[in-house]
Specification:
The protein is mainly alpha-helical. Helix content is about 80%, strand content about 0%. The chain is flat, with a radius of gyration of 16 Å. It starts with a helix and ends with a helix. The mean pLDDT is about 85.
Length: about 90
């Protein structure tokens, strides 16, 4: 993989971080803000795992294990957000 690919991925990571910082300053509902930031963070985590940790070049068995871990994290975050919403009526 070439330097250009890594540079583009790095630029995407920086751009999404800047977008997260811009979102924090916007008058958005709390739930929308939290969901957006968690979604952007998930995208960044997948990009880092695929390209900088070279997961896309690994065998499918290892990739499947990592995908299972990501799905578990998404499920736990979703359950947490739903329970916070139910408790506080947000």
């Amino acid at each position: 993989m070439g330097v250009i690919t890594y540079s583009v991925i790095f630029a995407i990571l920086i751009g999404s971080t800047v977008f997260e910082l811009i979102l924090i300053g916007q008058p958005l509902p709390r739930q929308t803000l939290i969901t957006s930031i968690i979604g952007l963070t998930g995208v960044k985590a997948v990009l880092v795992a695929l390209f900088f940790q070279h997961l896309k070049d690994e065998p499918k068995a290892i990739s499947s294990l990592v995908l299972f871990g990501f799905m578990a994290v998404i499920l736990l975050i979703t359950i947490s957000l739903l329970s916070i919403t139910a408790l506080h009526g947000v």
